[in-house]
Amino acid sequence: MDLQAAMAKLSTESTTTAVHYSHYSAKLYEIFIKWCSKNNLKPQYKITDDLLKDSYKISVGSLGSKQDQNIKFEIRVPNYTYIGVGNAKTEEIARTKALEDIILYLARQNETPAIQKNKNKIKNEDSKIDSTKIKKLDSLEPIVGNWTADTAFKRLKEFVESNNKANFKLNIETIRRDYVVHMSIFIEKLNKTISIRETGKPKKKVMQQCEVNLVNKLCTLGLIERYSSDRVKKEKLNYIDNSFNVVNVNEKLVNDIYSLLEDLNIKPMIHKDQDYGEIFNRTPLLLDTVIEPLEPLNQFNASKVIQWAPPSSDWNPWLAVRISNPVSAANSIDLLKSLTEISYKMKKELDEKKQFSFNFQKRIKERSNLPIFKKKDAILDIIKDNSVVIIHGGTGCGKTTQVCQFILEEFINANKGAFCNIVCTQPKKVSAISIANRVSFERAEAIGKSVGYIVRFDSTVPQSFGAILFCTVEILIRKLKFGLFGITHIIVDEIHERRASCELLLIILKDVVQKYQDLKVILMSANANLNIFSKYFNNCPVIDVEGNCYPVKGYDFFLEDIVQMINYKPSIAEIRSVKKKKNIDNSDNCNLVVPDNYPREVREVVAMINEDNQHFKIVELLLIHIENNLKTEGAVLIFLPGWGWISELNNHLQQNEIIAQNCSILLLHSSLSHVQQHKVFKPVPPGKRKVILSTNIAETSITIDDVVFVIDYGKSKIVRCINNVTKFDTVWVSKGNVIQRRGRAGRVQEGICFNLYTKERYNKMDDNILPELSYCSLSKIGLTIKLLNLGDIYTFLKKAIEPPPDKSLYRVSDLLNEMKCLDENGNLTALGYILADLPVEPELGRMMILGNILLLGEPLSILVAQSSTNYDLFLGDYSQNAAKHYYSGNRCSDQLTFLNAFMQSESTYYGYYDDDNDDFVEHELSTTALKSTYKIKEQIINKFLRFGFPRRCFKMEHFDFGKTGIFDEPQLDIISALLVMGFYPNIFLHKDKRKVNLKSKEFAVICKSSVNSPVEGSSDHFQLPYFVFEQQINIMCINSSMVSPIHILLFGAQKVDYIDGFVVLDDWIYLKMDVKVASAIVALRPAIEDLIIRTVEDPKLILKPTTTDTKLINILKYLCDFNAGRHNLPPITFETREDKNKNKETEEK
Fold first, then answer.
1. End-to-end Cα spacing for the chain
2. Are 215 and 146 in contact (CB under 8 A)?
3. Cβ neighbours of residue 973 closer than 8 Å, sequence gap 6 or more
4. Burial annotation 456-486 (CB, 10 A radius, 16+ → b, else e)
5. Where is 469: in which H helix or E strand?
6. Thinking of the domain 559-770, which architecture would CATH place it in?
7. Taking the CA of residue 216 as centre, how many other CA atoms within 13 Å lie in the half-sphere pointing to its CB?
8. Pick from 782, 899, 885: which is nearest to 851 by CA?
9. What 8-state DSSP symbol labels residue 652?
């Protein structure tokens, strides 16, 4: 149908609501047709249902229903590149906007007369603008600036960021079943506030329509430009500077893809027989449908509160299993008697220990000297009278080890010991294990009797009744799916840390104690500000206990004091790295603000020191100063932000002969084995000073008795999730953290704390820690909420002490829906259940399922496990370590380098090496990293086997990596491709040397420890510039792997469009490829989703795939090949230069 026929059709269908548009539209049509007739041109039009894309970050649910669609009307004229575009709810209004758009273009080209706008404002049911805020304009400027839902959000964000006084406000209300979205922005130039108000549903569409109208109104006022293809060209100039973006797929493979799509009855957005001239600009290529509807998982939905019951003699509360042979059977009265008999036996044993055990008597006396003993009766009384109690105990008061014993001993003395089962949570596994051992020591009994612990990969479970179990918060949460049966008391320690898992637990416990008031919850912390927790638990009582520490001389020992004390002079390199006013985190450089009461020389030196520096030389000089000048015995505890800094400082200090001779340097990190962590508690050889390099793991709960000196960097590492991109940031800690760290000194005598930051920096620190829920990824937490049947994710997390931002809550629901983890009712699907139960992030779990289908479960489980350890495999100075290149196989992949090293170290499979042995000297590999990876890998594989996946998925693979001259290994190509599915949208494009381009356009570099970081004498040129990476730490991209553009197209890109002859991925990666081929490739995504869903419902399909599934799997393997898009182009090869020369010489001979 041509435009004239469309106009005739519309004129007969016009409704009264569009009558104003009908007259205006007829006038526009008359002008346009006269111009076309004059120039002998026949215009064409195209109508599509324009689904509102995910351009706004706050969204709810999945879209796609009829009411969620906009009509997109496009008018094209032969010989003209400009396209008139109109978007609206009705075809009538969309057509009018498109006509207006193209006539305004022709008017600017002086080909048609300008349109004289009607002074009576045309009201659009689509766009209700608050006309009282803005003057009506009589000008030739367009009302519509050609901005759409796909482009408006980005432009609005740019406008707000570039205008400091814009004061953008967003307000969302609900009236009956409709959403009312109100956006306003202050325009300083006009001294006016422009407001837009939209009403309707769903929320996502209303918000996007509001954005479109607001941006177009700004365009009308001349504050921003009209949208045009010129803007796209300007943006893509930043990235198109080489020929790497050319993709050419073999014709046979393309035909096979089309054949498969016909078998699957999937129609790509652009058909293979469609004329290229009929393909409109800005055509989206992604399909939004799956082949089969999702089958909901049968779930128990009766209760949204974790169930609880008191102890019973036929139930083991620690293992959540029924005891097959209870002491007595029959009925509940007999069960009650059995617990009573156990209680009398426990009372008798305790009395005998008090009377005959010298060790027990001695330890009771030692315990009685702790400050908390003075409050024992008060604590027990307040616990009896309240469901929730908060204990505020100063450092060293004994709250962590004593409160649980107070409760248990009270029950035992009352002949009710078997009716008491206590769970004590700790933030770290090292603290859970060390405290459990300490408490069992104080009770003069072996670990596993009345005291035990459960942490990941290690456990010693106590007796079934009358016992104390120490565990991490994560372990307790995972056990909640079996209920809290048999637990009488839950003690949550260190609540001030505000970790996401702890916040989740507090929400759960608040609901539980409201329903089951016999359950007792005791919250503990050394932080002074606990009012927020008391208020959260209905103003529950807080009992204070004084600490028991020697004074710490550190409040005034800041960087300026240290510089003066050690007479520090910065190196030239350090001086050059100083920023003038800002740090990497964009905060003020507080080193420039030193009080005038310090000598000028000190102030000048401090100003030369960059706050972002690692201060290794200062630490070195401080240790020498402690050794030579202070003449005080005692250990030194150094707080650093992460493992990278720990490893580098350790290497630096080992180079100093004085420190190496006089100090025993020990490392403390969560990824180390329990045996290695426990070394910090043991004495060092005589004449040596213990120096401990630790993260904030040593900040709370654990006590290293001989620590006298603390050196505090005042920094920690947090994991932010921004638009699904994981980024590790090094941030300043809070004043509460500083107090906790200072408290680690002074346990046995007066302590000294050295702060590697200025007093001004300390004054600018926040008082309290920022809740992790406010910035972390919520996808795993959302699945946990569903796994525990706790209701709607948004509603549940809104009950947190400080709820996450709304946009994060909407985003996690959208993400889980897109991943097919939730059905239309918000319940877990079979896929969602598996991803919730796996001990990895859902994106990695989904990647593993497809890897299992492709029979690559073993290598992928190794890589997923490695990403969980956060531990460096290669020892020593990485930039000088030949092992990384030896194992890389020239694959340009950190992940594949690790895989090769792991699989060659066969001893890890059999456990030949002890935890005490820290490295393979001959291979320069860390045994700790290998063994930790092995444990997690086995845990993941066992989970999948329990889900019913065949063992064949995890068969041992052997890769050559070029050792015997085999470089073409298609399975390694598949693994590289699947990494995109696991880590997207973490993509960078290599630019120059270590510099890379990110979508965010932020400055970033390849990490120095990467195999992709150029070393001296090597080339910084890559055959392809596309890389997927695991995480970002500050400006460094960690663990990267080269991938092909087809890998991103098939498994990654969340938006694929055809713009100005390019296939554009997520608005920043431009590919020169046949748009039909690209459309066919992305049309395979619903088939991949369907294959994953059917496989998790029946894993046996892996062994007996259908004919169509086999075709799909084979095509995926071909597309994953690095050369799938290199037809008639130079091939990608992983041979080294030396190998190529040898092959050339062989051919010549």
1. 68
2. no
3. 1120, 1121, 1122
4. beebbebbbbbbbbbbbbbbbbbbbeebbbb
5. strand 467-472
6. 3-Layer(aba) Sandwich (3.40)
7. 22
8. 899
9. H
Sequence-separated (6 or more) residues with CB below 8 Å from residue 682: none
Within 695-828, strands assigned E span 707-712, 715-722, 725-732, 751-755
State both tokens at 749. 């005598």
Using CA atoms, how far apart are residues 1049 and 1054, in angstroms rounded to an integer? Answer: 9
Please, which residues have CB within 8 angstroms of residue 94's CB and are 6 or more apart in sequence? 47, 70, 71, 72, 73, 86, 87, 88
pLDDT of residue 475: 94
CA R_g for the chain: 33
What residues have CB less than 8 Å from 906, skipping those under 6 apart? none
Q: Are 622 and 658 contacting, i.e. CB atoms less than 8 angstroms apart?
A: no
Q: Say which CATH architecture domain 308-325+337-545 belongs to.
A: 3-Layer(aba) Sandwich (3.40)
- Beta carbons of 1087 and 1112 less than 8 angstroms apart: yes
Q: How many whole angstroms separate alpha carbon 153 and alpha carbon 293? A: 31
User: If DSSP codes are grouped into helix, strand and coil, which group holds residue 1101?
Assistant: helix
Q: How many CB atoms lie within 10 A of CB 987?
A: 27
Q: Is 545 helix (H, G, I), strand (E, B) or coil?
A: strand
pLDDT digits (tens, 9 = 90+) for 645-702: 888 899 899 888 888 888 999 988 876 766 777 788 888 888 899 999 998 888 876 7
C-alpha separations of 891 from 899, 930, 973, 1035 in Å = 12, 21, 9, 24
Tokens 């612990």 correspond to: 453
Exposed / middle / buried, residue 806 (Cβ in 10 Å: 0-12, 13-18, 19+):
middle
Closest alpha carbon to 865 in 936, 944, 939: 936
Q: Do domains 35-49+69-115 and 559-770 have the same CATH topology?
A: no
Q: Over range 946-963, report the average pLDDT.
A: 89
Question: What does the DSSP assignment read for 317-363?
Answer: TTTTEE-SS-S--SSHHHHHHHHHHHHHHHHHHHHHHHHH-HHHHHH
For domain 149-221, the CATH class is: alpha beta
In the block, tokens 């207006």 appear at 100
What the block records as the tokens of 1103 is: 């062994």
Q: Which CATH number fits domain 35-49+69-115: 3.30.160.20, 3.30.930.10, 3.30.565.10, 3.40.50.300?
A: 3.30.160.20
The single-letter DSSP state of residue 580 is: S
Distance between CA atoms of 340 and 462, rounded to whole angstroms? 19
Helix axes 857-869, 927-946, angle to 10 degrees: 130
Q: What pLDDT, in 10s, does the model give residues 756-767? A: 999 999 999 988
* SS3 at position 568: coil
At 949, list the tokens: 């996946």
Q: Which amino acid is at 802?
A: E
Would you say 220 and 1075 are in contact if contact means Cβ atoms under 8 Å apart? no
List residues bridging with 730 in a β-sheet. 717
Q: Contact 227/212 with Cβ under 8 angstroms?
A: no
Kindly compute the dihedral angle of the four CA atoms of residues 894, 896, 897, 900, in this order, to the nearest 10 degrees: 160
Mean of pLDDT values over 922-932: 74
Rounded-to-integer distance, Cα 480 and Cα 212, Å: 46
Asked whether residue 216 carries a pLDDT value surpassing 70, the answer given is yes
N residues, the chain: 1149
Q: Is the pTM of this model over 0.90?
A: no
Domain boundaries, the chain: 35-49+69-115, 149-221, 308-325+337-545, 559-770, 775-832, 855-911+921-967
Look up residue 584 and give its two tokens: 């990497």
State both tokens at 991. 């630019």
DSSP state of 228: -
- How far apart CA 1024 and CA 51 sit, in angstroms, is 34
DSSP string, 92-114: HHHHHHHHHHHHHHHHHTTSSPP
